[in-house]
């Protein structure tokens, strides 16, 4: 079933339950997907929908970091709630150990031996973890493993 159909059903449920926070986030997700469809002039496939959701989650993670730095706990709490709603539509997130295994496999496959080959490793890793892991976490693990070489 398409993500848009799922979102529409969940929007109806949120409206009936008068859950304004969930409704607001779901409408933002739906709008983001529809905007991408308009740009592409066609319906999105599952992977493209996942890309949109990942981008929405990344925006919220970045916002959370900035709000916490600024001491704006009220806004940080709101973003945390939004993140839990968006997470429901993303695939199960990989553990740090699973990410490390994927990164190590990519390092072995590329034969990377120094931090200069960071791009090669990331190029192999990111398609495998798309939507399943935070890019910043993957970035840190790749740097760490390449520093050890």
UniProtKB/TrEMBL annotation:
Keyword tags: Transferase
Keyword Signal: no
Pfam families with a match to the protein in the record: YqeY
Listed GO MF terms: carbon-nitrogen ligase activity, with glutamine as amido-N-donor; transferase activity
Keyword Transferase recorded: yes
InterPro entries: Asn/Gln_tRNA_amidoTrase-B-like, GatB_Yqey_C_2, YqeY/Aim41, YqeY/Aim41_N
PANTHER family: ALTERED INHERITANCE OF MITOCHONDRIA PROTEIN 41, MITOCHONDRIAL
Protein name: Aspartyl-tRNA amidotransferase
Source organism of the structure: Enterococcus rivorum
